[in-house]
Amino acid sequence: MAKYMVDSLDFPYCSGCGHTWINKSLGQALEKLGEKPSKINLITDIGCTGLVDKLFLTNTIHTTHGRSTAVATGMQLADQILFDNDAKHIIMIGDGGATIGLLHIIEAAKINCDLTVILHNNFVYGMTGGQNSGLTPEDFRTATTMGGNLTPALQIAKVLEAAHAPYISRKLATDQDLDDAILAAIKYPGFALVEVIELCTAYAVKWNPMSKKDVEEILNKMDSGELGEIVHRKDRVNFGKIYKECHPEKPQASSGSQGGTGTKLEVKQEIKLQQPISIVVAGTAGEGVQYAARNFAQQAVETGLNIVQKNDNPVTISTGFSLAEIKVSSEEILYSAIDLPDYLLISSEDGLHRAINYLEAILKSDQASTLIIDSSLVAMLKHYLIERNESLDKLEIISQDFRANGKREANKSMMALIKKDLAIN
Question: Is the CATH number 3.40.50.970 carried by domain 18-242?
């Protein structure tokens, strides 16, 4: 039987926290489902719920606060429309992420993406001190409503029902059949939400009576208090299927390195790599660093390689750093992170500061890497190494004046050096 959870389970939650029961139930549900762990995408965001990542042997994708459903929606539609449609996308989200990202959940329900959302509802913001959330019941005491919450809780099941969500259920974290409820939601061929009512033992229990009878009274006051399946529609078709019917695939000529919306890249020639190669490109926002990385990635696809490109996402535009991570392999890429890049490209002083962590990791390791750096930064790099009493032995350094012919030409030059080494034309 496939393993879905790590061997030595050390749940990072307070004693009695419902998150532990939900994690265990999800693991049991996945065992009953029987899919390959590599076909399970577990998407999380900020809060205690997001600590689940290290417990599962599936693919885990950690996103920013409230955005897990949006990221999962994009992943699911890409899988269904462009690929094999054989992955399961499961979102673990708390009441904080659910209310902050409420519109993402509503849109996913409205268009009916094939997703499973497991909403951990413990009525408070547990990780940040027990403040009230959008799902805090009326009269409930929290760190910010010690006299009792003055406003009623958002009835999220009814909100999503109004958004045409086809499958909604509600369970208690302590229910013996929680794993079956989660399994039913995963198997449902469209948007499915399981709201799990649980206890935050750090804060909610401390300030509120929380016996099973008390929880039932809270639920009855919030809405009907109904448990089990609340909505189960069979008349909705998931969005990916509708999209494919309305937009059948048409042959399209490749537009070369530019790619573009709606363009399908075709393999023009195949090359084989003996081992995966990782590349980090660091520069200044506005230089076209991410454009250059995308250009390279598209050309790698046209040689039959698997590729992952990850870009940074600065809060401000054209004022922050710009960085792209690229991993290229002839085999399927199951781990996308880059700890020790084989190639480190630095095009600006901003980029040098941004790439320090990668540089230090290389210097501490036994791995030989290639550093491609703008010629104006060589003196600064040597000063940095001398200060730390580091040797250049582990680095093959290639310096070039990337700015001689303008920013776009600079990025073409940077990526050309690597493409030549990889025999990517």
Answer: yes
